[in-house]
Specification:
The complex is a heterodimer of chains A (313) and B (257).
Chain A: H1 2-21, H2 29-60, H3 72-87, H4 92-95, H5 97-121, H6 127-149, H7 154-164, H8 173-191, H9 197-200, H10 204-209, H11 214-236, H12 242-253, H13 259-283, H14 291-312
Chain B: E1 2-11, E2 14-24, E3 29-33, H1 40-47, E4 55-60, E5 63-64, H2 70-73, E6 77-80, H3 92-98, H4 101-104, H5 110-122, H6 138-151, E7 156-160, H7 168-185, E8 188-192, H8 196-202, E9 205-210, E10 213-219, H9 220-223, H10 226-233, E11 238-242, E12 245-249
Parallel strand pairs in B: 3-8, 3-9, 6-7, 7-8
Antiparallel strand pairs in B: 1-2, 1-4, 4-5, 9-10, 11-12
Helix pairs in contact in B: 3-6, 5-6
The chains are: A mainly alpha (313), B alpha/beta (257).
């Protein structure tokens, strides 16, 4: 287990250094600064996605779900399209990265607050019921977005297309700081429940039997997860799906159920996936590919590999 | 002592428990028997506070169970549920260690380790110690979860069909172990069993339930009678005594005697 961590984090260090210094000499401080900024965005995203996905899977006791099921990403696109239609491409809400980030993050957090309200208020509502509502809503957002897209000026459509794919191009120093602050507060808030997370794995009955207020822990975790997902989506766009690959690889390589282990391992996996994808985009594809597409390609290949291995047995 | 007064329970429009009044004495092994759907598991999960008591009162040591803080309650009473399956990479020792959570809050002391090892030894799980629980057979998993509950070391223990999936040897061992805990450590153990013969041979008291009502609560010798059991299960019984063991024969079904 310890060796796996050492190997994993050596690879992480290697990709980080490669990403930062490949093809530049040290007097290009401007380029290095830009790369550092993108690296920070990736670090934040990796932390948010890893925590959100792994804990979400523990709560739902299902290892193939991601929080993106709740419709955050389709809702994000809908926000962008509606903004474009209502305010036009030159509006400050679209042109300014900061305002756009803030608006999207706040709206998504409000959306999840509304979605979970029923779950928090009515104890008899099962979590899976809420998931189903999220799924239906996300289909609704998706088709509404498609419908509205038809009404957009073809020149402005390029903006929507840009929003559809995750990219680091929309971050700025200000949005990074805001995302960092939001996530920091969220993680600090969640910290006092951290020791109870492993008991959540045992299910409600045993968690309660061992003196843990399961319902309260789950409620806070879900609230935290929705902030993390909202912030990371507002920061670089739809990317939460990556969580499935992160958790899949983590559960395969880690033979411990403790969240301390899985989350710190998953964070490394997420970093390697995201940074190497971003590296390839910058050096090989000359910024013509989107981060999400490339990471999903990696992950997809890995899953095909797993599938073939499974079928051959 | 657990004292239950006029306890009702509804699920949807169906009444599961229809006013149960029951006193469960301390330091005894009590078996809960009755046909399917009698409300045995519901009663247990209400005592264990897994569901909210909506009508009626349950008192544990003369205090309403709702007034206990959850952490405090978990040092008083432990509960083993009927179905135990977890898809987790947890070893047997790690799972049993969770039983100490109410005391250690995740930081195990030397005393905790000693209790964990002792429980693993007592339930003959030493050879499985480092196996993952998702790779165990049903019976082994059942014993591992029981070990976790026993490591919790509470004065009251509720077991919902702990003999599920167990072979004869292990079933006997578990019942002997429970009996032993009652006799030597004065624990109060309430067990739901379907094999009436285990109840007949190990219980101090037998509680019979039927259709959400309490049918009887009697010392074992008075409960294991052909007419009492016949009325409860609605089939005919023949009680056979051989030495110290009692056998309830019901395999002939209804009224061939």
């Amino acid at each position: 287990m310890r060796n796996k961590f050492i190997i994993l984090y050596s690879i992480v260090c290697f990709v980080i250094i490669l990403f930062l210094v490949h093809g530049v000499s040290f007097n290009h401080s401007f380029i290095i600064f830009g790369r550092l900024q993108r690296l920070c965005a990736l670090l934040l995203t990796a932390a948010a996605i890893t925590y959100a996905t792994l804990v979400f899977q523990s709560i739902t006791t299902n290892k193939i779900l991601t929080p993106s099921l709740m419709g955050y990403e389709h809702f994000y696109l809908l926000i962008q399209v509606v903004l474009l239609l209502l305010c036009g491409a030159n509006s400050i809400l679209i042109a300014s990265k900061t305002f756009n980030f803030l608006l999207a993050a706040v709206l998504m957090i409000l959306y999840s607050a509304l979605l979970y309200r029923g779950f928090f208020k009515n104890r008899n509502k099962k979590l899976y019921f809420i998931l189903l509502i999220g799924l239906v809503l996300s289909i609704f957002f998706h088709s509404t977005t498609q419908f509205l897209q038809m009404r957009i000026d073809p020149n402005e459509y390029a903006y929507v297309q840009q929003a559809m794919f995750s990219s680091l191009g929309r971050t700025s120093v200000a949005t990074l700081f805001m995302a960092f602050a939001l996530m920091l507060f969220t993680f600090i808030g969640l910290w006092r429940y951290f020791k109870y997370l492993d008991l959540i794995n045992l299910g409600r009955n045993y968690a309660r039997g061992l003196g843990v207020n399961y319902d309260r822990v789950v409620r806070w975790q879900l609230a935290g997860i929705s902030i993390l997902v909202s912030v990371s989506t507002a920061l670089i766009g739809p990317i939460t799906f990556v969580g499935i690959f992160v958790s899949g690889i983590t559960y395969r390589l880690v033979t411990k159920a403790s969240h301390r282990t899985t989350i710190s391992f998953g964070f490394g996996v997420a970093l390697i996936l995201l940074i190497s994808a971003q590296f390839l985009i910058e050096r090989l594809f000359n910024y013509k590919q989107s981060l999400g597409v490339l990471v999903n390609l990696f992950g997809g290949v890995y899953f095909m590999f797993l599938l073939f291995k499974f079928l051959r047995k | 002592m657990i004292e239950i007064s006029s306890l009702h329970k509804k699920i949807g429009y169906k009444t599961i428990l229809k006013g149960i009044n029951l006193k469960i004495p301390e330091g005894k092994l009590i078996c809960l028997i009755g046909p399917n759907g009698a409300g045995k598991s519901s009663l247990l999960s209400l005592i264990a506070q897994l569901e909210k008591v909506e009508k009626g009162v349950i008192e544990l040591d003369n205090r309403d169970i709702r007034s206990y803080r959850l952490a405090e309650f978990s040092m008083k009473l432990a509960y083993l549920q009927q179905h135990n399956h977890l898809d987790l990479k947890l070893t047997v020792a790690e799972l049993v260690a969770y039983g100490r959570f109410p005391y250690s809050k995740g930081r195990l002391t030397a005393n905790d380790h000693q209790i964990i090892e002792q429980t693993i030894g007592e339930l003959n799980l030493k050879s499985l110690r480092n196996s993952f629980i998702d790779e165990l057979s049903g019976g082994e998993r059942q014993r591992v979860f029981l070990a976790m509950i026993l490591a919790q070391d509470t004065p009251y223990i509720l077991l919902d069909e702990p003999l599920n999936n167990l072979d004869m040897k292990h079933a006997v061992e578990i019942m002997q172990h429970c009996k032993n805990l009652v006799c030597t450590q004065g624990k109060t153990i309430l067990i739901v069993v379907h094999d009436i013969n285990f109840a007949a041979n190990y219980a101090d008291y037998i509680v019979g339930m039927k259709d959400g009502n309490l049918a009887f609560m009697l010392p074992t010798s008075q409960a294991i009678q052909a007419d009492v059991l016949g009325k409860l299960f609605n089939i005919d019984f023949q009680i056979i005594t051989s030495g110290v063991t009692v056998m309830c024969n019901y395999y002939f079904g209804k009224s061939r005697l």
